[in-house]
Structure formats: C-alpha cells, structure tokens
Give the backbone structure.
Amino acid sequence: IDIENKFNTLFTNLGGISSLPETNPKHDLNNTTCTVEKVSMNSGCSSFAGLLLTFTNDFQISDTSNVFSISVFSLEKSVDVSIFFIGSQNYELQQTVENLNQWNTLNFDLSAFNGETLKRIILYFDKGDPCDDSIYYFDQIKLKS
C-alpha cells in the first residue's frame, strides 16, 4: 500500500481523540508533503484512543511488501507509536519517536508474518497513557519491501 496522499479521510477516530488534515508543521528532507494528518490527544479521551484505518482491499504481506512505514512528527515530547495490525493474524508492534521537531520515519518489520493478510490497522500514540492534549503529526504510510 502507498496511501500517503489519500489517507486523510480514511481514518476513524476512536476513544475521543481527533484528527484532521493540516499544513505540514516542518518541511525537511524526510517529509516535503504539503498536507499531513494532525492528531490531538484531547484531555479526557480514553487511554486506548486510536485511529482506525480499514483497507479497501486486503493486503498480502510478502517478501516484496513486508515493511510498514509511517512518518511521525512530535514537537513537545517523545512518543510511543503502536500499530495494531488486524487480519488473518492480529499483532501489535511499537517504536518510540525520540527526535523532536523533525520528521521520524518508523519502519515496522512484518517479515515474520509473510503470507498473512492485513484488513485494517489501529494507530496509537502513547497507548495506555492519559490523554494530555498532546499534538502529533503523521504522514507517508506505506507497506513496502
């Protein structure tokens, strides 16, 4: 999948957070896109609030498409980014964004799941933590080799 320029309307907000397309807060070599997705972790939202993306078609994980990548930008604090993959198997992978005020490309290795299919994902920022009005940005979602 390469949904980097058309994902903005595909996400369903879960648990009281909000997301909307917004101008890229910082153009740099890692992200030159004009519009990215802004996520607001609204106070009072569920500690398991996330963004659901349902794929139009099932995606097959294979040798040529087994790395899920996403670019994340955080201005204020480091953030744990968790992706819950839902399909023929369900599994969750997590990485931490520690470089602030710059775009970070996170690559999630799905090679252990070659042959499986993906139907949807849920994207979490600091899953399990109380919502504190933090703002995060993401863009450039891809499933690649």
